[in-house]
Amino acid sequence: MSRNTYRNTTLARVAQQLYQDCPNDIAIRFDDGSCISYGEAWESGAALASALLARGLNPGDTVSFQLPNSRFAVIVMVAAAIGGFVINPIVPIYRNKEVGYILRHAATQALFIPAELRGFNYVAMMEQLIKDCPNLHRVIYLGEAQDLPDNFETFDQLLESGRNQPIEPAQADPDETKILLYTSGTTGNPKQVRHSHNTLNAALDNGVDGWQLTDQDLMLMPSPVTHITGYVNGMEMPFFTPTKTLLMSQWDVNNAIKLIEAYGATTCVSATPFLKELVDACQHQGKTLPGFRLFACGGASVPAALIHSAWDSLDDCRAVRVYGSTEVPLVTVGFLEAAQRDLAAETDGQVANYDVMIVDDNGNDVGLNIDGEILAKGPAMMLGYSDDEQNREAFTPSGYFRTGDIGRLLASGALIISDRKKDIIIRGGENIAAREIEDTLLLSNAIAEVAIVAVPHSRLGEGVGACVVPAAGFQVDMDTLREILATSGLAKQKWPQYLELLSALPKTASGKVQKDKLRQSIRQQGVSL
Predict the structure, then answer these.
(1) Cα end-to-end span (Å), the chain
(2) Could you say which of 3.40.50.300, 3.40.50.720, 3.40.50.980, 2.60.40.1840 is the CATH number of the domain covering 13-172?
(3) pLDDT tens for residues 375-386?
(4) CA–CA separation, 478 vs 277, rounded Å?
(5) pLDDT tens column, 189-233
(6) Which of 148, 293, 396, 529 is the most buried (most CB within 10 A)?
């Protein structure tokens, strides 16, 4: 795919056209039985954009949201497009440390949050954080009005204040930055990934073409819309393509089965653990989900046996492995043909609209069937990080992105991922940076050395393990780790679930911790969370 195949349009333009052509057509369904039409998406998005502009925001300002999969997230997305704001999704599991950093780094002007979600009070968190976020002028929360500072208001209050105000969509350049996504940084704070309207659409088109999506498809989307997968395939897809979507507020396998059956969902793109739970539940319930034709999964390791099991136990479903990242979304799209079943199960998919090269430690192309670092370049690739030094490290002089993953390319165009060069743990589809947890634990006098590594997890794929060398005179147990992390502000999903005490960490001659040996030792012990 060359640059002239970009759509060269924006969400605001297509949303306005759909509002004019088919305002009553359903765009997106939700798992509570409700839906949003193109008319409501445009009218509410325009009202929200008008209200934000009236409160002093300007095109190009950053609007962040930390919302679950919901109609509110859809309206914020459309509003950002109409107002010409740069949108910044923040993963709902993030807490004070991560959220505060992102809001300051992104220079967020307005933030949308739930008042409370799954037992956590987001308003209370923002009351603590807002004083340290100099650009943040407005916090908008879902729920009833509360006695809060003037710069807090409810979603409904903001929305109603902008109703019936004339507004024209901002004239955004499709090559300009549209979205800021933060990905776990292996050397400290999250990295800001910048995508344009065009690069995001190219990622969408990779899936639409590779999976042969049509107006007969309905995409079930349990992945958070704060991830690139959920954002593109969950919220933007129905505006740019004839394929509609059904958003799940959170994954529940029995509810997923009910939704597939009730609405005729045909496809799903999500994390590996969700596929395993779906297959297991269908086998237990004696269901085969006729009409459900595709489940594309990636992230943590995808066992070949799971893919074969899905093909065998579900009537028409092609379960496939795909590969990509926030920086280079959907490098592969899987293999769908019956004759390609072994490739679907044993490889990580067919390269689609990317140039992929496998290189050795010196950057030399190793050719086919040899392991090396995976480099990728294509129209869906990010514009870059916000940090110039990070870009110098991430890109080759010829413009390829260094993925940090190890794999090999086959003559068939299939890619096989064999190892991970990046120090990342993938827990239930969420990337977790080991360095961030290590730096937090090392603040304690009780810990002399620590290495955070992935541990096999029966449901989530990978969990967090801590290999610890206690400081002289200290005893360390799981309670010790919890006490340290409880005051850190780190999301609980990043807390270790496994602890191994060592007298020393294995290291190379140059002093680098050999995490591969730690992971291998854990596997040999048969540890599984």
Answers:
(1) 42
(2) 3.40.50.980
(3) 999 999 999 999
(4) 29
(5) 789 999 999 999 999 999 999 999 999 999 999 999 999 999 999
(6) 293
